[in-house]
Amino acid sequence: MEHRRVALLLPGQGAQRERMAAGLYRPGSVFAAHMDAFLTALGTEGGKLRAQWLRPAPNPVLDDALVAQPLLFAVGHALGRVVRSWNAGPGVLLGHSAGELAAACLAGVFDERAAATLLAARSHALTGTGGGGMLAAAAALEQVTGLLAGLPDGRAAVAAVNGPRQTVLAGPVEALARAEARLRAAGVVVRPLRSGHAFHSPEMRPAAARFEKYVARVRLLPPRTELWSARTARPVDERQAREPAFWAGQLALPVLYWPALRALLDAHARGPGLVLLDASADRSLSAPARRHPAVRSGTCVVVPLLPGRTAGTVEDEETLDAARERLAGEGLLA
Question: Which pTM was predicted?
């Protein structure tokens, strides 16, 4: 009997939540061991990051990419190690933005120590690039681009395609304000995202160039696990995995998360299918998958690893235990 494959979805900027997965941070756990290893590798900054992570809500410092992105990487990577400790794979990895770096680390493109170096370098590369922002629009890509055609400066760029009707824009604050006005006038629901940077837009090209110099110092290897890229919406090949520009350039290029997830689900629309493990604290990564025919038919299933809201130790542990039990029920624990 063939079993479903396990695919792990890893979040990026915007999915951060106060104390996300903190209930799993207990002495002796696999999760804590990998969180501590990463935070220790960051040196003095790691101690500050731990304190910022464990602060109760409200915690506006999480809006800062220099805090949110290393934490998103650390939590996603540690959850991936927990799944691996169950002998459940994952056999497929897909990350959104900073989550793509966590996916690459889990796939063996670079090791955990190199990951700490890269996340610190990514933060350094972002210095001086603030002043922009990001805007989520509840509309399809084609509708958004059509409505924004002809705006005078054109600096509100498509930064991400997160779902069939989930498009994100990024750019300077003034350009986003004009784009927001145009979209609202057309009846499109929009909301600002928790970001002070114009990620995945041309505004980030200088930061991407700086980051590439750091990535070039790291040993990059072919992925040992099937690794999908939200930059190309295809699996990462050996050549791409070894190119510093491939990993650094994502800072200035759109995130094609929904096209990647849709292609992955299309590839498994007939049995045995996939178990999609959602590592996001807001369950945003699996939300668009629920509308895909492969999930609606039951061929592929969605399983959250976190409660989907700010929770405590009990909720965090219960959700993770339920995921493990679901995988056991699927016959996926070796």
Answer: 0.96
